[in-house]
Design goal:
heterodimer, A: mainly alpha, two-stranded antiparallel ribbon, 2 strands, 1% strand, globular, B: alpha/beta, Rossmann fold, six-stranded parallel sheet
Chain lengths: 484, 452
């Protein structure tokens, strides 16, 4: 294990975070809020620590293997969240550090689960930072670092693999740095377009920015306690569409960029994603229209609310326009299933990812067929290519580890006096980076009622979910740090 | 530059490693996912699993926008086909590895023209040429030629009893009165670009350029001169041995080839009627001694196993064969072989890598750099670069001793009207010359870059 280089990279990340923290500082200055000076203070401190680490470990061997890649990514996210939580804690916006850490992890991992009961009371600079963490975490800060800084090591594909979600991480350009640049270019352009759309509606620039950050990172922090519910139908539709767009594999946008639209349209994952969304919207619409006709006035409202909630949950954003906690059980169950499926691989969404679920089902289908024709030889095909056995194995392995970790976390959370529905959906919402769950932690509730232990565990669950379990698990495994 | 490379075997990997460090964008294609993984894990390149002659795969790799397309799979036909397709799709330049002797005769030119190949490389032929150069001048452990053969740089190793041990370069020039220029000294893992006060040590690897005839003078004066090797034994009947034997026989030498496989022996004896082909195991010391190992001028071991080559060469050295050369492909083993006392080691893999890198550099000429050719020397730790001197260069017309040249850079030779000048302080560089520069730091792109 090349510890020196890991620490050096942590230093770099902190320096970048320090620079990014100046943005909320500027926002605070514009609205002349006193708490904004904390950002300047924390930013300077972060900068000093980061620079210190960089200088201290400057002379290190720059070789990077898979294990260093895992460690750099997992530790970066933890350290980043620790420093990112300081402005909330020091300014007194959030009174306990545990809660401040939870809120920041929830931001960076684009979960959007909040322990704040009264969001409207927050200073604007705090709101901005809270949502900006979504934007940073969405595409990944290490990918961002690769895009803007010359690489130190030729092997940073390991870092990219550890940070980008999905079973197989493909490059769109020959070099990691170019790939990172293209991904961020697409990300930034889509963000700007969305801000303009929202600004044109009933949101002011600040609200447009905050909600765009939440949508782009598929996070879900809003400026209001009732999330998007109070905004116009136009804004709700814009957010619905963009949530779905940010849940698509970014490689497809890159393909369109280099004018290979045909290849992008052929993606089976994309069509499966669209199919799941469409089917869910229809099912939820019918369910609500038949059972809750008296609550929502006309049919178009029903369609809008169903589409918004389905899009919000499958992309693991966690915005809401209504309290879906009050919906009939069937609709709630659909939403819970969508939490686990999540968006496409290579998007900013969380969950298991559509492609992984597809591969799993294809593998199961092949196994079933083999039971009927024991001698049949068949390969599993995906996206027009034969799936390698190793990929299929790793998908199955991932799902198993995912379930084990999920139930282990849920076991701890069930110590809370809230009942099974809350324990289950709170875990699912954090682990899949969705945000709100059902019961106590529904869209109208918050995570404020949890004990310190549960709050730490859930923060950890969010990190596990965002980085797809292995980087975090391996970083805390003695195997990684052993001398051999 | 955007470069697509098909075939990620040992040669492919070497080429990728050099090209990546030059900063090119590389897409690697191979049908074996495991090979690709091992490449993409180590180098910053895009991997594509598939057949290099499949137009879909080529399209995905972006062959239409590629500046250079290189095919180095194990199959000549696949290489030619994929180069041809890539060229038709719009790749600007194509290089194919073509190594079968059938293709490497007169038909090569016809094939190259009609398949629109920019270059064919044949690692075995390159290796054989390199070996032949060394056998012609056995005092050297390595010979590089620059500027279409006008300038040669030879590498020698100072033996432990060398009279040059402890001598400074200035003293050497005085005592031996030969007009030679020491371009670099490799000692352990370090490379020095020496000045007049540099003191040599036994065990050093020394790179020297000289005007024709001057080297013989130096070696005779040192008492280490060896005549051209005439009586040569080759171990292993590979393609390399075939090419090399051809060259040696042509120049009037006598060649013995030992090969284990009777069928290959049969084929070789048909193709090389003048050579003595022996069917036997080269690892049998009896056989080697019986066939006159001790009376040989040179022994070259060319089997497919690096380890066997090293061990048998050490054995031959022990039997006081004047010149022993081993073919060693794996980089780690090259170093080990040198430490075990083998001076001359050739590595076909590295040679092919060099050829392609210098080709890529030459292509970049039009894009601002004016490097004509580039050679990796001193075990890859230094570079020799050939520049065409443009009329607007800042180095023109100034005596060399007055030029403020950066540390670690040396002007090894000036070629003017096909005549080589081994430069001294009063010489000047003129427009239209070719200049060969030796640099310890890599990445020199322009002749003016040598100035402080």
């Amino acid at each position: 294990m090349n510890k020196r280089f890991v620490f050096y990279m942590l230093g770099r990340i902190l320096v970048i975070e320090a620079v990014l923290m100046l943005l909320p500082f500027v926002v605070g200055l514009i609205y002349s809020e006193a708490s904004t000076w904390w950002f300047l203070l924390v930013s300077s401190a972060t900068f000093v620590v980061g620079l210190g680490l960089m200088l201290l470990f400057k002379k290190s061997d720059k070789t990077l293997f898979a294990r260093e890649g895992f460690a750099v990514v997992a530790l970066s996210w933890i350290v980043m969240s620790l420093f990112g939580a300081l402005p909330f804690y020091l300014s007194g916006t959030i009174h306990s550090f545990t809660d401040a850490f939870f809120e920041t992890v929830s931001g960076f991992t684009t979960t959007g689960a909040s322990i704040l009961p009264n969001i409207e009371a927050l200073d604007r600079c705090m709101l901005f930072w809270r949502s900006f963490t979504h934007w940073i975490g969405g595409m990944g800060i290490l990918v961002f670092m690769m895009a803007i800084m010359p690489s130190e090591s030729g092997r940073n594909v390991h870092i990219m693999r550890a940070e980008m979600p999905g079973p197989v991480v493909g490059k769109v350009a020959p070099r990691v740095r170019e790939t990172a640049k293209i991904l961020y270019l697409v990300y930034i352009v889509m963000t700007v377009v969305m801000v303009l759309f929202l600004w044109a509606g009933d949101m002011d620039l600040f609200e447009s920015l905050v909600h765009t950050f939440g949508t782009a990172g598929t996070g879900g922090f809003s400026t209001r306690a009732d999330s998007i519910g109070g905004y116009s139908a136009y804004s709700q539709w814009v957010i619905t569409v963009f949530m779905l767009l940010f849940g698509v594999n970014f490689n497809l946008y890159c393909l369109i960029l280099i004018k290979r639209i045909k290849a992008a349209v052929k993606s089976t994952e994309l069509w499966c994603y669209i199919g799941i969304v469409a089917a869910s919207v229809i099912a939820v619409t019918i369910n609500i229209a038949t059972t809750m006709a008296n609550v929502y006035g006309n049919f178009s409202d029903v369609v809008r609310h169903s589409a918004f909630q389905v899009a919000s949950i499958i992309t693991t954003s966690g915005f809401s326009t209504v309290d879906f906690n009050l919906w009939p059980e069937f609709s709630k169950m659909i939403l819970v299933v969508l939490m686990f499926i999540g968006g496409c691989a290579g998007s900013t969404a969380g969950g298991l990812k559509v492609s992984r679920v597809m591969m799993m089902f294809k593998g199961i289908y092949r196994d079933l067929r083999r039971m009927i024709h024991p001698r049949s030889v068949s390969s599993v095909r995906f996206e027009g290519k034969t799936l390698e056995k190793a990929t299929l194995h790793s998908v199955n392995g991932y799902v198993v580890v995912y379930m084990i970790v999920f139930f282990a976390i849920m076991l701890v959370i069930s110590l809370e006096p809230f009942g099974l529905e809350t324990a289950f959906t709170a875990t699912a919402a954090c682990f899949n980076n969705v945000g709100p769950g059902l019961g106590e932690v529904g869209p109208a509730g918050s995570f404020a009622g949890f004990s310190n232990l549960s709050t730490w565990i859930l923060s950890f669950a969010m990190l596990l979910g965002r980085l797809e379990i292995f980087p975090v698990l391996l970083t805390f495994s003695p195997l990684t740090w052993a001398k051999k | 530059m955007k470069i697509i490379l098909v075939g990620c075997g040992t040669i492919g990997a070497t080429i990728i490693s050099s090209l990546v460090s030059e900063g090119h964008d590389i897409v690697a294609i191979d049908s074996d996912a495991d090979f690709l993984n091992s490449i993409t894990n180590v180098y910053d390149v895009m991997g594509l699993c598939g057949n290099g002659a499949d137009s879909d795969v080529l399209e995905e790799a972006g062959a239409d926008t590629a500046d250079l397309f290189v095919a180095v799979t194990g199959s000549d036909e696949l290489n030619m086909l994929s180069c041809f397709l890539a060229r038709k799709m719009g790749a600007k330049y194509t290089i194919a590895r073509v190594r079968s002797p059938e293709y490497n005769d007169k038909s090569l030119g016809f094939m190259k023209d009609n398949l629109e190949l920019s270059m064919c490389i044949n690692p075995e032929l390159l290796t054989a040429r390199e070996l032949y150069k060394i056998l012609k001048f056995p005092s050297a452990v390595k010979i590089e030629t620059f500027s279409r053969g006008n300038l040669e740089m030879i590498e020698i190793r100072l033996k432990s009893d060398s009279t040059l041990d402890g001598m400074s370069l200035m003293e050497m020039r005085k005592t031996h009165k030969a007009k030679v220029l020491v371009c670099y000294v490799r000692r352990d893992d370090e490379v020095f670009i020496p000045d007049g006060n540099f003191r040599l040590k036994s065990g050093d690897w020394v790179g020297i350029t000289a005007a024709p005839g001057e080297l013989q003078k130096l070696f005779k004066s040192l008492g280490v001169y060896q005549k051209q090797a005439k009586n040569v034994m080759l171990l292993g009947g590979s393609r390399t041995a075939h090419y090399l034997a051809d060259m040696l026989l042509e120049s009037g030498g006598s060649v013995k080839i030992i090969e284990r496989n009777p069928e290959i022996c049969e084929r070789l004896s048909e193709a090389l009627p003048k050579a003595v082909i022996l069917n036997g195991d080269g690892a049998e010391q009896e056989l080697l001694l019986e066939e006159g190992l001790r009376s040989l001028d040179a022994f070259v071991s060319l089997t497919n196993t690096d380890e066997a080559n090293i061990l048998l060469s050490i054995f031959a050295s022990g039997q006081s064969v004047p010149k022993v050369i081993a073919k060693v492909n794996r980089e780690e083993l090259v170093r080990m072989a040198e430490n075990m006392g083998l001076d001359s080691v050739v590595s076909p893999k590295a040679m092919v890598g060099d050829v392609i890198v210098s080709y890529a550099r030459a292509l970049e000429n039009s894009k601002g750099s004016n490097v004509e050719t580039l050679y990796k020397i001193a075990d890859g730790k230094a570079e020799a670069l050939e520049f065409n001197v443009r009329a607007d260069s800042k180095v023109i017309g100034v005596p060399l001793k007055e030029l403020q040249i950066k540390k670690g850079i040396l002007i090894a030779g000036i070629i003017r009207n096909r005549k080589t000048v081994i430069p001294v302080g009063d010489d000047m560089i003129l427009a239209g010359d070719s200049v060969v520069i030796v640099a310890a730091d890599q990445g020199l792109r322009d002749l003016d870059g040598i100035l402080r």
